[in-house]
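Our consortium's second objective concerns turning raw sequence data into structural hypotheses that experimental partners can test. To show how far this objective has progressed, the report includes one record in full. It was chosen at random from the queue rather than selected for favorable results. The single chain below, 309 residues long, was entered without modification.
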Amino acid sequence: MSAAAADNNNNNNGNICANCGKGEEEGTNNLKNCAACLSVKYCSRECQIAHWSQHKKECKKRAAELHDEKLFKQPPPEHGDCPICILRLPLLDSGRRYYTCCGKVVCSGCVHAPVYDDKGNVVTEKSCPFCRTPNPKSKEEAHSRANKRVDCGDAMAIYNLALANYTYGDRDYTKALELYQRAAELGYTVAYFNVGCIYDGGLGVKQDEKKAKHYFELAAMGGCMLSRHNLGIDEENAGNYERALKHYMISVRGGAKNSLDNIQDLYKNGHAALDDFMKALESYRAYLDEIKSGQRDEAAAARDDYKYY
């Protein structure tokens, strides 16, 4: 390595090729970052290959650090806010409902609240609380609406299709995998968890634990608390209690009560501090406060008589 390149490594100024010492030409972008660690630059692929033996240890270390920065960042709420009451949607399925008429996910409180027309009159026919479209009268009508949502690229509809028809229905995991990946790429990143499950179990594909973990992590970073909780379990089983605690703390903030229980167990077994458990408890209470409303409390005690949605 040239003296110029050595000086670049020492000062890490980022304007010189880490292998040959060639500087960045004015008005050009001839130097490219190492894609894995982003910490050094090269003027060509040949220089990158030549420098790899010196760079690989630091590269792998920095790449792992960058990965963990993304992995352990608190993600946005898994399902966002209810479009009607603008309160955070609950984590549990029983606390929300997806409507194929408009593609909205509405909280249980707004589902059971009265629906009014544009003149302020109560709509007596059971209807979508967001767009006021009457509920389907048959399974055929419900399926027709769902298919229309799929055709227009609705990520949630595509996910539901994969789950109902090809995971629990015909068990065509090849088709399910295709749909889950499509739904995730369209923004419903929870679907990556299902992709991970397919690779983890070798369902219609060659079992691949490394690939499964990759998709579990993508789901967790996208806000899937189930995936996040399971990553915590994997780390705990491997004896990596600090990493397990980080995962559990994030999923508790997202509403995962089972992660709170696991943190309590870590504390009881001497793998976490009392302060860790108290912080987790505060986070879970904060989550409950965010999703609480009188309307939702009333809905929790009401009978759910919506058959199709």
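The partners drew two points from this record. Residues 1-13, 305-309 have pLDDT under 50 and may be disordered. DSSP finds 13 helices and four strands in the chain. Both points have been shared with the crystallography group to help prioritize constructs.
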